[in-house]
Amino acid sequence: MPTNSPSAPAVCGPPYGDRLGGFLIASWAVLHVPVLVLLGLVAHQAESAAPSVAPAATAPGLPLVQVRHLFTRSSERRTAMHNITGAPTVSAEFTRADYRTTPEYYFETERVTDPVVLRLLDLCPTVFGLKKAVADLLAGRNGIALPASEGVIEPGATVRGEVIVAAGAVIAEGAFVTGPVLVCSGAVIEAGARVRDNCVIGPGCRIGFGAEVTRSLLVGGVFMKHTSFVGDSVLGLGVNIGAFVSTTGLRVTSGPVTEPATEEVCAHLDGHRIATGQTKCGAVIGDGVIIPAGTVLQPATLIGPHTMLYPKTQVGGFFPAGSQGR
Fold first, then answer.
1. Which residue ranges does the record assign to the Mannose-1-phosphate guanyltransferase C-terminal domain (predicted)?
2. What confidence category does residue 25 fall into, taking pLDDT thresholds of 50, 70 and 90?
3. Within 13 Å and on the Cβ side, how many CA atoms surround 200?
4. Greater pLDDT, 286 or 20
5. Which of 36, 117, 219, 271 has the fewest Cβ atoms nearer than 10 Å?
6. From the CB of residue 268, how many other CB atoms can be counted at a distance below 10 Å?
7. Hey, how many other C-beta atoms are within 10 angstroms of the C-beta on 262?
8. Tens digits of per-residue pLDDT, 234-243?
9. How far is C-alpha 256 from the chain's CA centre?
């Protein structure tokens, strides 16, 4: 009787040639997919790095001005600071139309008690004209009557040039004051302080040891009790300047420093370069602002009233009224 020999198991699957093709295709994908992913990342980065331009901004009677997008990453902000001279410049006509450049935006004029300081604020359509207005005032060119010099200059104080010390003001022993300077009623320039060259020190201000003020208007009640420097600036009511604070009036991108300076310093608002008409421009600081110790204010810094600045080594640009700066 014939016996049935066991049969070979059936093979389910593709033939050998098909399996080899599948292996080759899989190998090609493994080798080339990373390359394709890398090429995609490079293309994405190139697209992200392409400069973007916001829609044109307009102002009445002015040509269209291209406004750059605000950068959000710190590296992009640093790059923007190096290229800041390439931003568009806006004429003085634009600044007059912008309320954020007027004295009324920064200073509550109803609280200004000194008639000379109040007249200066009324004369200027923008804060950028106040430094020249102070120089014209002390030179007798704008018709504002100056008070009589009836204050106290203590023995041992060094006073040179035309210095007017109003009734109730004091220049203490050891202070250095070089005119033209007006020290308003109730202001005190203490021992070791330095005030020079076209300054109006408003009522109730205190300038302490190691503090220096030059070519500036202090509206009133300003405290500079520690070593610090304020130049080419306007400080509002009740501003407090911490220790080792300094304003700066020239940009490092302007090339070699010359004296007197010749290149105009511009402020910056909404991506526009705002002409200041000044070759040295420090800061405009609104009422009630406290500048933390160790802060350096970049040229043409604009700080609205009652702004809260947190400790930081460098501060610049524009801070709206009542904002917080970190």
1. 178-302
2. low
3. 29
4. 286
5. 36
6. 18
7. 8
8. 999 999 999 9
9. 22
Question: Per-residue b/e over 124-151, b at no fewer than 16 CB within 10 Å?
Answer: bebbbbbbbbbbbbbeeeeeeeebeeeb
Q: HSE-up of 229 (CA within 13 Å, CB side)?
A: 10
List Cα–Cα distances, 145 to 91, 115, 117, 120, 314, in angstroms: 32, 10, 11, 11, 39
17 pLDDT above the threshold of 80: no
Q: Note whether 162 and 178 are within 8 A (CB).
A: no
Element (H, E) at 299: none
Segment 285-290 mean pLDDT? 98
- Of 68, 90, 94, 88, residue with least CA distance to 79: 68
Nearest CA to 181 out of 167, 168, 194 is that of 194
Q: Between the CA of residue 19 and those of 27, 91, 109, 157, 318, what are the distances in Å?
A: 12, 76, 89, 101, 69
